[in-house]
Specification:
A hairpin with a 6-residue loop joins strand 1 and strand 2. It is built from 4 helices and 5 strands. It is mostly helical and 118 residues long. The radius of gyration is 18 Å and the shape is flat. The N and C termini lie far apart (47 Å).
Length: 118
């Protein structure tokens, strides 16, 4: 369990913390405050995971070993989950949550527009 940044009670579980974002914050069951991992941190952890997978791909090709691929994937997933575990939660204001939801819907629409022309 992780501490809520508002009331400091341990009410947020790992799945809720891991899946939290500005548009869908992890809600504290005690005080009702929303919190999430910073977008820059979450994106950096994901990018770091891809950086860790790149040498794994080269090693798989060089060594011709599937075991290296499995080992590299396990190390990358463990690193990503460890970074998510160590990440701090920040409070997400109601206005920030509304703006993030609008931005997410706009991104979905922007991805759907090209399909209208194909």
């Amino acid at each position: 369990m992780y501490s809520c940044p508002v009331c400091s009670e341990k009410t947020i579980g790992f799945p809720r913390k891991w899946l939290s974002s500005s548009s869908n914050p992890a809600m504290c069951s005690r005080c009702g405050a929303g919190s999430a991992i910073r977008v820059a941190d979450a994106a950096g952890y994901l990018a770091g995971s891809f950086v860790l997978l790149t040498p794994t791909g080269f090693a798989v090709v060089w060594l011709h070993s599937f075991l290296v691929a499995v080992l590299g994937l396990v190390v990358t997933v463990c690193w990503y989950l460890w970074r998510q575990h160590k990440a701090t939660l920040v409070v997400v204001a109601e206005s920030e949550q509304r703006t993030a939801k609008r931005s997410a819907w706009l991104a979905v629409l922007a991805c759907l527009v090209p399909s209208l022309f194909s």
